[in-house]
Amino acid sequence: MAWLTAATALLTTLGTAPAGAAGEWQKVGGDARSGISGLAYEGGTEDGSGVHALAVHDNKRSGQPRLSRITHRDGSDTVSPVGWDGPEPVDLEAVEAIPGMPGEYLALTGRGLLFRLKVSGSTATVVDYTPLPAIGEGADFESFALVAQNGRLAALWADRGAGPDRPATLYAAPLTFAAWGQPLFGAVMRRAYRAAHPIDSGTRHISDIAVTDTGRLVVGSAADAGDDGPFDSAVSDAGRVSVSATGRVRVTLATSPTVLGTYPGYKVEAVECLPDSAEALLGTDDENLGGYLRTVPFCGA
Questions:
Q1: What distance in Å separates the CA atoms of residue 105 and residue 114, rounded to the nearest whole number?
Q2: What is the DSSP letter of 142?
Q3: pTM of the model
Q4: Residue 286 confidence (pLDDT) above 70
């Protein structure tokens, strides 16, 4: 993937700020149709002062927006629609750029249908779509991440879990693509994960996953008491992932995840590490209250 190193010009001082202190929440949506369910880094602005990111929205009715492009700068955000060309998904919850394939993305629905997209200008065209492997009964997915190491590619995703009695289930598998574009998965491994915060009955233990340049797993967790809140969220250091030269995927989850930041009043559903940077973009889907975006320094080594 063509990473733009100038993205770091956007960022505030790294390593010295307390958890959650880099940047402030900036509103990017005013209603339930415009909250952010997932983010994918798209590139830097020409002047190096900001970044472009694709955002997915969890809308379910035909004709409602599925994708937007957000241009984020410290102090301002610009949101523009991205049209959808192809079979219309229901409830998009995550989106990820495909490493080494500029302009191509994978977007996931809550029920586990994965769409491969080609984005050009203001249009996203469906190349192919397929269900995830190993979908369990009642699974509800909000997260998807890709990791490229040693010339190999792997995918991670998670059933979000629900409250103290149902932890999240994190899945990982090698990933390749058929000649016609379909994602193909290798052997699937799974691990249980419990959030350190929040811990109430409405907790979604994994609301999104990001992978740093060094293989750290940065995980969002959120609590949702209804369409008008109250909401609560956290971002945690959850463990590590590696992919060997033979394609073997190894995931090690922390016994006690380290909470990097907490966000009462917000429902974080998008965590995106910016390339060649310690910064992450966080996005919220606060239902009737809309959506917000900010940066935080959580993706360093």
A1: 10
A2: E
A3: 0.91
A4: yes
